[in-house]
Amino acid sequence: MEHDALKTLLPFMPRADAHLGDIHISGPDDPILPTPFRIGEAASASLAACGLAVADLWELRTGQRQKITVDTRQATASLRSGHYMKMEDTQVSTDRNPIMGFYPAREGRWSYLHCNFPNHRAAALSVLGVPENREAVASAVAKWDALELEEAIIAANGAGGMVRTMDEWAQHPQAAAVASLPLMEIVKIGDGPVEALPEGDRPLSGIRALDLTRVLAGPTCARTLAEHGADVLKITAPHLPNIGYQEFDTGHGKLSAHLDLREEKDMDVLRGLVRSCDVFSQGYRPGTLAGRGLSPQELAELRPGIIYISLSAFGHTGPWATRRGFDTVVQAVSGIASRQGDLFPGNTAGPQFYPVSAIDYLTGYLMAFGAMVALSRRAREGGSWLVRASLAQTGRWLVDRGQVPESELGDVPEEFPSDQVDGWTMLSETPTGRLRHLAPVLKLSATPPRWARPAVPLGYNEATWPEP
Q1: Alpha-carbon distance 324 to 461, whole Å?
Q2: Of 28-37, 235-244, 380-389, the least confident
Q3: CA quadruple 179, 184, 186, 190: dihedral positive or negative?
Q4: Residue 198 DSSP one-character state
Q5: Whole-structure pTM value
Q6: Which of 17, 27, 221, 331 lies at a CB distance of 3.0 to 4.6 Å from 72, suitable for a disulfide?
Q7: For residues 281 and 296, what is the distance between their CA atoms, to the nearest angstrom?
Q8: Parallel, antiparallel, or unpaired for β 86-87 and 110-113?
Q9: In 3D, which of 45, 54, 15, 9 has the Cα closest to residue 27?
Q10: Domains plus CATH for the chain?
């Protein structure tokens, strides 16, 4: 496989070219699953980039190089890793809320309602004025102009959007804002001394990461850091909505604690954790944390040398910078769902999601790549660093990889052979049972990725760092 997608990531990492000869990407080209988008190429590139960053950190520690191997099929499977989980030999349900989905609106347009979280579902139902019933929702949406419904739901603090074609999205002001940004940013935001990597026998040994993200992209970033030896502490609270199965999927390697950041005493605990951490990852909308003393600049003052990862839906600039969004919302508004529906119609007419959560997982891998590059730069140059990414920027990168010709999209399998999937899985003993799940995709010759801890329920641990 050519490394075209990987080459777009190399400029983010100094000295990346020196390790290119250590990479081997195997497996078939796209299409690997039924979609025209080159998800296999993007997945293998983002994981190989993580491998480059890990190898660089290991060389910084030991002076030793190592080989990096990625299989495109396994990398593609990782873009829907929740799909392959079994708890005590029973498939873990990943079903979406039945209200969530695409609906015909007035004038031949389509609307997408994101309703997995109870608060977003309530917002949509409030705007539509109907009970939680798909038929009632469909009847109500049919009376709305899709663009007016999009704005009404956003104004009600919900999530969703009008389905656009790729050409329509290209003319949108937010698409122009996203196009003005790089795929992600790794920028120095404060001074600080050079910090050598802590002692340890893994690339990220001794690195402490706070994970204040939810759903898939941000938690995947933190899971990836844990895969290479970081101590990761996920912070959430009982009042925050969550989708339970996703915590089994993205919780490998992490501790998990509850802190209610509306309470000053819990904010004090968080600040104490920040003072002794290395990485702080958050997925709140741009500006949300500034009033709580948790902006990048404020944390760089609290903990000089911090690596601050900031995730948003649509980027930090443009008219939609503060808008809620998810992988599926980005697919809907940017033309991905429209194109997928044209080429792979579902049981019902209209837009379709591609068969993986590519934008979510790819963004998570890219965030982890950026964090590890920033750690390397801190060890060589010092300073505090900001890693900034968004789902929309990743979606644009995926679309920019081009599409598989329609002539090559016939008879694409919807699933991998079961024996192949079995070879990619592992078993973890969790507090709630024996969980079978996908193992790490990356193969590294000197530091094989692994999770030192099993996934645990939210709030299972104390809000404190483990003893070294």
Answers
A1: 29
A2: 235-244
A3: positive
A4: P
A5: 0.97
A6: 27
A7: 10
A8: unpaired
A9: 45
A10: 4-93+182-315+356-444 (3.40.50.10540), 101-178+322-343 (3.30.1540)
- Cα 315 to its chain centre, rounded Å, is 14
User: What is the CB neighbour count within 10 angstroms for residue 143?
Assistant: 10
Residue 136 banded pLDDT, cuts 50, 70, 90: very high
Q: According to the model, what pLDDT value does residue 170 have?
A: 97
**What distance in Å separates the CA atoms of residue 427 and residue 439, rounded to the nearest whole number?**
9
Here the tokens at position 296 are 């990048």
Burial of 457 (0-12, 13-18, 19+ CB in 10 A): middle
β pairing state of 231-236 and 208-212 = parallel
Residue 394, both tokens: 């990743």
CB atoms within 10 A of CB 286: 20
Rg (CA), the chain: 21
Q: Smallest Cα–Cα separation from 176: which of 331, 362, 396, 401?
A: 396
Characterize 186-221 residue by residue with b for buried, 16 or more Cβ atoms within 10 angstroms of its Cβ, and e for exposed: bebbbebeeeebeeeebbbbebbbbbbbbbbbbbbb
